[in-house]
Amino acid sequence: RQNYDFKTIEKKWQDEWLKNRVFEVDESPSKPKFYCLEMFPYPSGKIHMGHVRNYAIGDVIARYKRMKGFSVLHPMGWDAFGLPAENAAIKHGVHPAKWTYENIEYMKSQLIKLGLSYDWRREVTTCTPEYYRWNQWIFLKLYEKGLAYRKSSFVNWCPSCATVLANEQVIDGACWRCESSVEQKELEQWFLKITAYAEELLKDCDRLTGWPEKVLTMQRNWIGKSEGVEVDFPIEGMNEVLRIFTTRPDTIFGVTFMCISPEHPLAERLCDDKEALKKIRKLQREPEVKEGVFTGRYAINPLNGEKVPIWIANFVLMEYGTGAIMSVPAHDQRDFEFAVRYGLPIKVVIKPVDKDLTEPLTEAYEEEGVMVNSGAFSGLPSKEGKKAVADYIEQKGLGKKTVNYRLRDWGISRQRYWGTPIPIIYCDHCGIVPVPEEDLPVILPENVNLTGKGESPLKYVDEFYRTKCPRCGRDARRETDTMDTFVDSSWYFVRYCSLREEEAFHREKIKYWMPVDQYIGGIEHAVLHLLYARFFTKVLRDLGIVPFDEPFQRLLTQGMVCMESYRCPEHEWLFPKEVKDGKCIHCGKPVSVGRVEKMSKSKKNIVDPDEMIETYGTDTVRVFTLFAAPPEKDLEWSSQGVEGAHRFLKRVYALVYKHHKWLKEIDSDLEPSTRHSEAQRAEESPSSILSLIHRTIKRVTLDIEKEYQFNTAIARLMEFVNEVYNYEPKTDEERRVFKLALKNFLILLSPFAPHIAEELWRESGEKGFILEQPWPPYDEELAREQMIELVVQINGKVRSKMMIPQGMTDEEVVKIALDDEKVKQWIDGKEILKVIPVKGKLVNIVVKG
Ligand code: ANZ
Ligand code: ZN
What we know:
It is a single chain. The chain is of the alpha+beta class. It has five domains: about 25-125 and about 505-560, 3-Layer(aba) Sandwich (Rossmann fold); about 135-195 and about 410-485, Methionyl-trna Synthetase, domain 2 (Beta Complex), CATH 2.170.220; about 225-405, Valyl/Leucyl/Isoleucyl-tRNA synthetase, editing domain (Isoleucyl-tRNA Synthetase, domain 2), CATH 3.90.740; about 660-785, Isoleucyl-tRNA Synthetase, Domain 1 (Orthogonal Bundle), CATH 1.10.730.10; about 785-845, Ubiquitin-like (UB roll), CATH 3.10.20.590. Helices cover about 35% and strands about 20% of the residues. It is built from 27 helices and 39 strands. The protein has a four-stranded parallel beta sheet with strand order 2-1-26-27, covered by helices on one side. Strand 5 and strand 6 (about 165) form a beta hairpin. The termini are far apart. The structure holds ligand ANZ and zinc ion. Zinc ion binds next to loops.
C-alpha cells in the first residue's frame, strides 16, 4: 500500500504482538535483567495525556533495554481502591466494584492501543482479595512487631459533610467542599510506625544517586531531622517541670513566655479556665492565625532564674518534640506574631555581627549572629553559642541533647468502604485480637449502603461487623475502617515479580527482578508514595522477603503536559475544539487565551488521547509527546507539533515504499566482522550512507543512554530521513548498504513508533519481530564526526582555538566557546556586550573594559 494507513497497521501489530506473546518475559539465567516500571494508574475512567506521556517514556526504555539484550520486566496494573469509586456509587447508584472493573477494562484497551509492551500476565488489581489479602498479611506482621498500633488522635473534621479531611483539603480553616469551618475531632486510628525507620530512610537518601536531587531534598525535608536540646523549666508553685524542645539553645536568655499544646498532659492542671481550653482544642493546628490562652501559671528559666508566663497555644503540636516550647519572640517568627497579638515582651539576644537591630522589631531576627544580653555567654557567635549553651545545660543536669524528626507515624484508618479491611477483631473479653493468618483474607462485603457520611459503612453490615473472637469464641466486632490506599501502592512492584496465579512473595523471582531499575512517574508522588514504598521495602526486608534496602534504583519524574486555555465571555472555558480562528464556535465572540498550564478538566485545556489516536494514530501521538520536550521537562501541547510528527512518519513510510520493489530482493545480512571491508567500499561510494547510519546509531544510542534524551534522539532520526530521502542507490553494492542503513534506522525508530517500524520491517523483507532484534552496534571509526576548527576572538583578537564536530547549531557553538577554559580566563569578571557566531566556525565576543 502506498499510503500510510496507520489504523490498519496499528491494529494488526497490536493483535500480532499479543497473539505471539512478544511482551511476556520469564527469568532468564543467561541474560542481565532490567525492571522498568511506570506508576500504575487509578482507574478513573479513561487515560489522559499525562498517562500517555508517562507510559510512552517507560515503553521506549523497556523496548530499548530489551533490544540491548536485557530480560526486561515491564508490567502494568491498577491502583483500584479509593474515594472516586465511592463517590460515583453515591452519585450514580453504581456499585464501586462495577464502576472500577468497567473502567479498568476500558483503560486496558486504551493501553493496548498505545502499543505499550506490557506483560499482562502480571497485571495487578489492588481491589481483588488475592491482592489485598497481602495488605492484611503485612499489617499483621507489622502488628506482631509492634509497628502497627492503635491510638486516639485528632483529625480535621467537617461537621457539615460529616467527614474526615486530609490537611490538603482544609483551606484557610474551612472545608474545601462546603466551606464550613473545620473542627478537630478525636478518633481512634491505626498507625504504622514509619518513624522507627526515620534514620534509615534519611541516611539511605544518600545512596539514591539515580534520583532527581529535588525529590531527595523533598524526602529529606519531610523526614526533617533536627538536632537540639530538651530543657526542663520548673513550674512555679508546683512540684513539676515543663520539658521543652529547642533547636536554638543560644536564644534561651531571650525567652519571654512558654507555650504548650492544648493536648499537653499538663494542660488540664495548669489551666483553670476549662471553657477556654475546650475552645482552643477545636482550633486548627499549624494555623495561619496563632491563638492562645494564658494559664495563670509561670515557669522559671533555669539559666537566668527569670519568671515567664505559661500559655496554651494552637500552633504547638503535641506530636512534635515534647509538645511544649520556650518562646523567643525576638528570634522566632511564630513566637513574634503571638507576642504581638497578646502584648508579650520581646527581648533581643542575638544581633547581626556588623550592626544593631532597630527596636521595636517589625519581625523576628532568625539568622545567626552574636549573643547579647545572655550573661556569661554574651559575645559568643551564635553558632558556637548553640553548642556552648547545650553543653552547659547537659553539665548542669538541666536537660539533654536530642534528635527529633518531623516525620509522623502513618495514620492508615479511613472511614470508607472501598478499601482493604483492617484485619482486627475487638472482643470485650480479650481486647484487640488480630485476625489469624489462616483466616485471611478478610473479604470486603458486597452489600453495603453508601452514604458518604463520616462513619464507615461496614458498621452497618451485620454479617461483616458481628463475628466471633478467634481467641475465646465469644461475640466480637470487626474493625470497620479500611486502609489508606497508599498501602496498596507501597509494595505492588514486588507483586509483579511473579505471575498472577503464582505466590505473591516468590523469593526466587523477587531476587531475580528486584530492585526496580527504572521507575517513572509524576513529581506529585515525590514524598508520600515514594517514602511509603521505601518504608515497606525495608519492612519486607526485615521480614526476609526482599533482599534489598531500596525499591527504586533510578527515578525519572516526568514533566507535566500543558496547554493554553480558552475562555469565551459568553460560554466560560472552552475545549480547544470549540475554538475556531480565535472565536467561540457557539457564539462567534472572540476568545481570550490563557497562559500555558497543566491540562485540567476545570479549564478544559485538554486533548483526549482517544481522539488524537483516531485522527493521527498511536505512533504519531507517541512520537509527538517524546519529541516535544525532554522527559523531565514540561511539555506544551501543540497541534502543529502533532502534525509535524505525523508528517515525519508519513515520510518514513514513503521513503521505504520508494525502494519497496528492490528492498525485498536484496540481502543485507552483514556480519559485524565484514563491517570494515564494507566501510572501505562505502568510502568509495559517494553516498557515505554507511557513515551516516553509524553516526545516527551512535547519537541515538547515546541520547537514550544519557538521561533519556528522547527528543534529540528523534531529531537525529528526522535528520537521517532528510539526508537520504532523495538518495537513489544505483549499483547492487549501494543497494546493499542502503538496505542495511534503512534496516538499522527502523530498529532505532521502533522504541518510539513501534507499529510503523514493525510494518516497514516486514515490508522490507525482514523476518521476526523488530523487538526481538539486537540493538545495532556502531563503529567508532565510521561514526566519527567531521571535525573543524573553531576560532574564538575576544574584542577582535584571537584568544582560543578548538576542534568541534561539523554542523553544530549557532547556539551549541556559542556554548562551547563560552565554556572554553582559555576564553573563560579572558572574560572573567567582565561584562559581555555581544556574542556573534559566524558560520559555525568563528565566535566573536565583545566585552567591556
Ligand atoms: C526556641 C527557639 C528560638 C526556637 C528561636 C526556634 C527559634 P525544627 O527545626 O522544625 O525542629 N518547636 C519545638 N517543638 C514544637 C512543637 N511541638 N510545636 C511547634 N513548634 C515547636 O524546629 C524546632 C523549633 O520549633 C524549636 O526551637 C521550637 O522553637 C519549635 F529563635 O525553641 B525553638
Ligand atoms: Zn475474646
